[in-house]
Write a structure and sequence with these properties.
81% of the residues lie in helices and 0% in strands. It has 150 residues and is mainly alpha-helical.
Length: 150
């Protein structure tokens, strides 16, 4: 069972050096939207997975998409913010992120040990995030780095 958590971190660490660079080359929006879409698909696959090795591979891919969400998504998020709002906005973002982990701990501690409900909630949020991410504009900072000012 400990290997499941390890698979997540192997996926996360294995992409930290090269995946953010892809966002610098190909654009933040494109990589971010593909990553969130893959994350929603992974949630759906996790709901139906009955095989331990398939589940471990899905968890590994969750680690890969976590690089998109936390590293590239954070950069994309801050590049869309006005300079005066970045500190407050990122503080609120990380507080919400931390509250999610706190909720999961309380859920398993006091509410239930069944994971299907949490996975279903995760799927709904991932699907909504993936859907709405395709309507976001490209990062202005990335566009300016390519001299695309129009």
């Amino acid at each position: 069972m400990g290997l499941l958590g390890t698979a997540f971190w192997i996926g996360y660490v294995s992409t930290m050096l090269w995946l953010p660079r892809m966002a610098d080359v190909y654009g933040r929006k494109k990589i971010f939207s593909y990553g969130l879409t893959l994350s929603a698909i992974l949630y759906a696959a996790l709901i139906f997975s009955k095989n331990f090795y398939l589940t471990m591979f899905i968890i590994f891919l969750f680690g890969v998409t976590n690089t998109v969400r936390t590293i590239m998504g954070f950069v994309y998020f801050t590049e869309m913010m006005p300079k005066k709002s970045i500190t407050l906005a990122t503080t609120v973002l990380w507080i919400i992120d931390g509250c999610v982990y706190l909720f999961v701990v309380v859920y398993f501690w006091k509410i239930s040990t069944y994971t299907i409900y949490l996975i279903s909630i995760g799927f709904v949020f991932a699907a909504l995030g993936a859907l709405f991410s395709w309507f976001l504009p490209e990062s202005p900072v990335w566009l300016l780095s390519l001299n695309r000012t129009e």
